[in-house]
Amino acid sequence: MTQKNTNKVACPNCEKEFDSHFEYCPYCGQKNSEPDLRFKHFFFDFLSGAFNLDSKFYQTFKILLLKPAKLSKEYLAGKRTKYLTPVRIYLIVSFVYFTLLSVLPSDFVKSDEGITPAPDSVSNIISFEFSPSSDTAKTDSVSTSAIRDNYIAKKLTKKTGLFRTKEGKKIFSSLFRKYMSVGMFFLIPLTALIFYLMFRKGTYYIQHLVFVLHLQSVMFILFIFFNLVKLLINNGFVSALNFLAFLFFLLIWIKKFYQKSWGKTVWKAILFLFYFGFIFVFFMIVVAGATYWNL
User: Fold this and answer.
1) Exposed (0-12), middle (13-18) or buried (19+): which is 11, by Cβ within 10 Å?
2) 147 and 232, same structural domain?
3) Domains held by the chain: number
4) In Å, what is the CA distance from 44 to each residue of 39, 69, 97, 148, 151?
5) Domain that includes residue 112, residue range
6) Using one digit for the tens of pLDDT, what is the confidence trace for 31-43?
């Protein structure tokens, strides 16, 4: 901004004067800063244009990472204009997380030492033929013909063959990550429902949904960090540390948000993991099945 006197500055954008203590121009909203463009300003302007980021972005993530559950409480208390919305936080973090997964080496395509080929059960069932005998040869022939003519069986046979190839594993990995990124968004309401059922006294569902959106965003940031660490140190210790950090953050967030004793917090966390485990296993089966079917 061009300074006119000790107390006034002129906005280079709208050219109106205002008090110098304002951080932003009260007329057009441009930041009160020096007009000289530096690389860092250009870079952050680019990010702001791409993701519509502003000062709320930094304030939001500072509290999200350093003060467990405080952001959820602030949002539910009505302090909403100074922070990014829970859904927007989740979308930004999940975008970064799944984009990172798409460029990191995949466990599905670690050459010949990678994932074990798909089980032979489907292929064996489809291609199975009974040993011929004088009494059952005709029945066996009809059964085998019916199976081979069946559309689903033929499609599964084709997909099983494709999945055994290196290219098929790459396609499966890419589709699986794509469906996971979309599916996780639909898993959020079910996760919130678990917390609602465990802590429903004196609460309403949306409170738990806000909490879960913030918690899941933190977990994605945690996974991003450990995935980057694994690029340098990929061993069991890092994976164990990742799991312990996950449990630590889960306990701290439940404790801070629901304000329960440590004993009750640990018990509720165990209960949550039990229920969530069933849902997540079913979710993974559905995603894997949809991926395999669209392979």
Assistant:
1) buried
2) no
3) 3
4) 9, 27, 20, 59, 54
5) 60-117+164-293
6) 776 655 566 555 5
